[in-house]
């Protein structure tokens, strides 16, 4: 923030800033100032207070659960930030800042830090749990670990969600995103002439499902190469089912990884095959919660 972001306002360097970067500081850095401020003013002090009493550490995480959501915003902006960096990362402005700081690594390595940090907390808490079997604060550590895993899951889910294309409505109105993942899907529609008797012979569709409290979205995953860089996935919207009108059949004969979601009194039936029985059960329990 000091060596790069504030240098963008340095009158001596202003002429070196590439035009693609004009007024795009917020895109490149996302809400990094907010993350820095939270750690600097609040979280660091609270953690330092636990040096003598490590059993109190878990409480810091539980108390700051809401604040740590700021990482989700950062990660959501990351693809835009990376695209901008690819466009102008090799400019003289950044080289000059890096030279002044005497850094071996360029700015993009530092912009990755918050993403790495949010995934590291759970590892640290796991390590602490190993050292604190049945001692004071163990239960709170377990709760703190679950909290951090929850935050990582919601960051991960929201990263997939921002890649949905072609959905007419507003995904933010569909309620909380509970689960997302890829499945084999077969459909059986009673309407029309294509009443399918034997579904097993037909090739399944690959669909990426997004389960919200109000809606289940079926999307098709597309991987696009972004100008010679890593593949970015996008999910093109295919269809949706209102959760208030669906039913579920938990077991499908002949395959314990399959379950059914049906619509409108079985007028439309979707047979869904998970990659494992555990995954199927997790989805079923989430869907059941929504339905009840």
CATH class of the largest domain: Mainly Alpha
Round the Cα radius of gyration to an integer and report it: 24 Å
Shape: flat
CATH superfamily of the largest domain: Dbl homology (DH) domain
**What CATH architecture label of the largest domain applies?**
Up-down Bundle
The H/E string reads HHHHHHHHEEEEEEEEH
How many helix segments?
9
What is the number of strand segments?
A: 8
The tally of structural domains comes to: 2
Report the helical percentage. 40-55%
Detailed description of the structure:
This is MCF2L factor. One of its GO terms (cellular component) is cytoplasm. This protein is α+β, with helices and mostly antiparallel strands and 292 residues long. The protein has two domains: 7-162, Dbl Homology Domain, Chain A, CATH 1.20.900; 165-291, Pleckstrin-homology domain (PH domain)/Phosphotyrosine-binding domain (PTB) (PH-domain like, Roll). It has helices at 25-29, 32-48, 57-63, 70-88, 92-101, 107-111, 113-130, 138-161, 277-291; strands at 164-165, 177-189, 205-212, 215-225, 231-242, 246-249, 258-263, 268-273. Helix 3 (57-63) runs parallel beside helix 8, helix 4 packs across helix 8 (138-161) and helix 7 packs antiparallel against helix 8. The longest helix is centred in the middle third of the chain and has 24 residues, at 138-161. The chain is flat. The mean pLDDT is 90.
